[in-house]
């Protein structure tokens, strides 16, 4: 595998493993099509999710 292919694969996996709410990258693929986030973020209320998103984008 060339370095370019390895980098492309890492970017593709990062898209599947990173929660769009808390921006945490996990070592497994997340259920983004069904739940839309990681399991801890899926249990949050809408207000809590908005607050968390504001905190992660402010940093």
Describe the structure.
The protein is mainly alpha-helical. The protein has one domain (3-58). The chain has 3 helices and no strands. It has helices at 3-17, 39-42, 46-58. The model has no long low-confidence stretch (mean pLDDT 91).
The number of domains is 1
Per the principal axes of the C-alpha atoms, what is the gross shape? elongated
Chain-averaged pLDDT:
91
- End-to-end separation: 35 Å
Keywords:
59 residues, mainly alpha, 3 helices, elongated
Write the layout of secondary structure elements.
Elements: H1 3-17, H2 39-42, H3 46-58
Structure, briefly:
The protein is built from 3 helices and no strands.
């Amino acid at each position: 595998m060339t370095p370019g292919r390895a980098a492309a694969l890492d970017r593709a996996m990062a898209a599947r493993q990173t929660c769009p709410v808390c921006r945490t990258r996990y070592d497994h693929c997340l259920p983004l099509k069904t739940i839309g986030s990681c399991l801890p973020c899926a249990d949050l209320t809408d207000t809590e999710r908005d607050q968390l998103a504001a905190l992660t984008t402010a940093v």
